[in-house]
Amino acid sequence: MSDLERTVRETIDRWRLLPAGDTVVVGVSGGADSLCLLHLLQRLAPEYGVRLYVGHLDHGIRGEEAREDAAFVEALCKGWGLPYTVRRIDVPALARERHLSLEEAARQARYRFLGELARSLGAHTVAVAHHADDQVETVLMHLLRGSGLAGLRGMRPLSRLEDLRLGEGVAFGEIRLVRPLLGVSRPEILAYCQEHGLQPRFDLSNLDRTFYRNRLRHELLPLLETYNPNIRQVLWRTAEVIAADYALLREVLEGAWRRLVRYESPNAIAFDLAAFRAQPLALQRSLLREAVHRLRRSLRNINWVHIENAVEIAREGRTGAQATLPQGLMLTVGYDVLTVSAADRRWVDPNRPHVWAPLPLPFEGETPLPESDWVAYTAIFPREALAEAWARNTDPLAGYFDAEAFHSPPVLRPRREGDWFIPLGLGHRQKVGDLMTNLKIPRPLRDGVPLLVRGEDVVWVVGYRMDARFAVGPETRRILLVRFERRPSEGGEP
Description:
The chain is of the alpha+beta class. Helices cover about 40% and strands about 20% of the residues.
């Protein structure tokens, strides 16, 4: 067994890259790296109990030469008895359409193709041929462009395809991306190809120094080797050390996230302000980065200046202070929460109903709430029909009221300046705004909280408190039930 094969086996076993019974989609360009990977995996597939399927993408950049590469891969798969799919995508047109660099558009197109192919086959694993020299270039590139620990750890042998941030709306679930050659150098790969009589294609674009990565490969790394001949090993090992440190810090971050997040939806995340400010600076930065990533999953790079400015505002800003974050996000300091949200979107709590305009409710019936998947049910019952259900009610979204107190059907509406009511059990008037402050409802959520009203009187701050004047009492003969239920819409956002 060669050193290369031993290294690859160790990587596969350590990271469990080839689950028995799975179909592995192998990205094959026809070059030395992917040819070495495919040859190795074909030899190892019976041992690991996996099936191989080859995917080749013509990026529409290199004309006849690319078509020859596709023909080479097709002939290779036929000769080796492997199923395959060859596809062509006009990457230059894609780059223009999405305002991306040619390199980034090609990266997105390549991984989308492999992910879609895996999904169509019911496969859970995509294998690509990145090797140790690719890792060195990636770490150096991230260092030069500016990156946190996540970038400086480079590529990992096992990750999720979805984590590559391939554009808005792209989701591949739990499809795994594996890199079995990540511990193998480029010279070792070339030697393997020669040893096994493999004759790979050569992509001339790899010599084009207008591409950023090629300049690193052909200009900067050779220069750095004049300072330290072992610079490649140093950078590769640095990535491994940082990856282990990052994994530990990630555990710390996830624990802090569970403790500090007061509210989370697809459009907004709120942290407990005092608890956030008590965290170490490094963790504050990580929490904000994580919030941006969760709200903008297609975003690859977060500018350092954005995070530093946001952290400063979060630590020192007064109530109402704001900081701009990438892709339309805004950080806002509240009186007790720190929010990261879409600046142009309304906040809603997916676990509670919300309204933005007055909505009449019938005494009997079912009323869908606009712009949501919530429904209000209303009905009037004789008191005896409900027994003591109204007294035992523990559902915050069900309210029981004295029906005789309503001379006309109730209305749902958002709060207004000056709204007040007499909370049941309090015994005196209270402003609705003060109640929301006392309950620590995040400020951006308050405008959507429904109020059940009779005329100008607030009957119920839905989900929180009802007015004593409308409560079921000893003289109540008929009871008005108002209950909210959610009907999840297929594929819809809450």
